[in-house]
Amino acid sequence: MEKRDRLHEGKAKIAFATDDPGLVIFEFKDAATAFDGKKKGTISGKGAVNARISAVLFKYLEEKGIPTHFKELLSPVDMLALKVEIIPVEVVMRNIVAGSLSKRLGIEEGRALDEPVLEFYYKSDELGDPMINQYHVKAMKLASDDELLRIVELSFAINRHLKNFFAARQLELVDFKLEFGRRDGEVYLADEISPDTCRLWDMSTREKLDKDRFRRDLGGVEDAYQEVLRRVEGPGTMS
Ligand code: TMP
Ligand code: ASP
Known about the structure:
This protein is an alpha+beta fold. It has two domains: 6-82, Phosphorylase Kinase, domain 1 (2-Layer Sandwich); 85-219, D-amino Acid Aminotransferase, Chain A, domain 1 (2-Layer Sandwich), CATH 3.30.470. The protein is built from six helices and 15 strands. The strands form four sheets. A five-stranded antiparallel beta sheet has the order 1-2-3-7-6, with helices on one face. The protein is globular.
């Protein structure tokens, strides 16, 4: 499968058409941005690390019955995927207070939530992905009622599976962002699952092993991404 026309360049990936109209290739980039692109940099080796982490996690979720767009890795940075129409509603799932939730509600970072919290954001670079709720989704016709129900059901299931997966690798899944796509009346998990889109803390030291090291200039960014890859590719042990 070869890359054909460049379809779209995002902040972390470039999408290419292929010979098959139903399939696309995502090339993962080392470029890193934060705060709606206001902070820019490079995380050396990130493209390959995030492609591999995403591949392992998509395969794991498929085994658990979650439909994903993932097909296979074609090279260290090229992921073959089903072509889906992205639903412009980003889902953030939270297990522990951090980031914007900590700021918005004035709760200290690190407090465990009794129940997972699901948030919707309108996927719009121009607007900086504003937070919305299910009524905005409905009024703006961003997704059908059936799609939204499915997105919520899948998001909670994905959270359960990923929390278990990471816990077996001594990683706390603090929060993460998901994107979904539609195709032939079905909803698929799309985009990527990586330290760019998840907050992951070492379970015993609570060291941050994710993009917050870049966002907050904590140093050791590359090492943190490599450490997540090492644990994700390892066998894992149930504690
Ligand atoms: P937040 O605390 O900044 O709202 O982020 C919540 C989670 O979503 C965190 O794991 C990082 C991820 N995220 C993205 O993947 N893309 C984004 O544009 C933002 C704002 C957050
Ligand atoms: N990905 C977003 C950006 O590039 C925000 C973030 O991850 O902090 O601005």
